[in-house]
Fold this protein.
Amino acid sequence: MDRELRTDLAGRRCANLPKGSPSLADPEVARLLQAVPEWKRSGKGIEREYKLSSYMSGVRLFALLAAIAEQEDHHPDALVRWRKVKLTLWTHTVDGLSENDFILASKLDAAFEEFQRSEGGA
């Protein structure tokens, strides 16, 4: 994991990108994925599945992650299942990946790590 890049991304804010803005080129996507190695390419976006100790733990995690997404005005597709929360990020206005997806992914991962500590592990 590129911790320096992850810290840089987590400290930034998602930008408002007008429709038709270019999506990231594959080499830049590969570079940014080094900051969030649990996230994988999936179609036009990236996705991650968080594993938890219970269904209600997943619900609590999703509420936390949703609040961060709302603050950034960049909203993932989400699926809350028994002991799992799966998120998919992509930027609709660029019809693919933008830096916003990696900014939000880094913030969500940091929040998950803190959540795990507060819940006593996964």
About this structure: The chain has a mean pLDDT of 95. The domain at 3-14+21-119 is CATH 3.30.1360.20 (Gyrase A; domain 2).
